């Protein structure tokens, strides 16, 4: 058994020059790293993946009060114990995430524009809209406002895609998009 240190080289051939194929793969790997490194700022500036919404700070209790005023003004029904709202086109919508639910449920009109305000009252939540491909990280103390124009009528479910505790798997919300020719929302 032989020992080595920083002064005594270990036995082997690791210090010999790399073979031609090894050099080629090192060059390819380094070039690919440089391409990806250069793409990061480009993806940030030109990419369509960055949310174009407005973010502001808000006290969770204030956001909850705004949401309750929204429910009081546009509430039409209860679904599984949660309020359902049917705001007119152009409205500001308020959606709260808290352990372990999203509320209120919403009925929106296809083709109409809205401003959706989302916030959490307690811990981080992930806002995922199924079957649409919409995902956001929702953090307490921040109001995320997004301009939306629903296009396809149907039922969309809101899931939490950020583990938020023991009831995480039950954290569901609902948005129903009604066809424009249905005469609006009732």
Strand tally, please? 12
The level of helicity is: 10-25%
Shape: elongated
Let me know the CATH homologous superfamily of the largest domain: Cupredoxins -  blue copper proteins
Number of domains: 2
Note the main sheet: 7 strands, mixed
Q: Report the mean per-residue pLDDT as an integer.
A: 86
- How does the helix and strand content classify structurally? alpha+beta
Share in β-strands? 35-45%
Task: Describe what this molecule looks like in 3D.
This protein is α+β, with helices and mostly antiparallel strands and 186 residues long. The chain folds into 2 domains: 35 residues; 129 residues, Immunoglobulin-like (Sandwich), CATH 2.60.40. Helix content is 23%, strand content 36%. It has 2 helices and 12 strands; from the N terminus they run H-E-H-E-E-E-E-E-E-E-E-E-E-E. A 7-stranded mixed sheet has the order 2-3-6-12-11-8-9. The chain has a 5-stranded mixed sheet with strand order 1-10-7-4-5, with helices on one face. The longest helix is centred in the N-terminal third of the chain and has 27 residues. The chain is elongated. The model has no long low-confidence stretch (mean pLDDT 86).
Topology, element by element:
Blueprint lengths: L19 H27 L7 E4 L2 H15 E5 L2 E4 L6 E7 L2 E3 L1 E5 L4 E7 L4 E6 L3 E5 L3 E7 L5 E7 L11 E7 L8
Parallel strand pairs: 3-6, 4-7, 6-12
Antiparallel strand pairs: 1-10, 2-3, 4-5, 7-10, 8-9, 8-11, 11-12
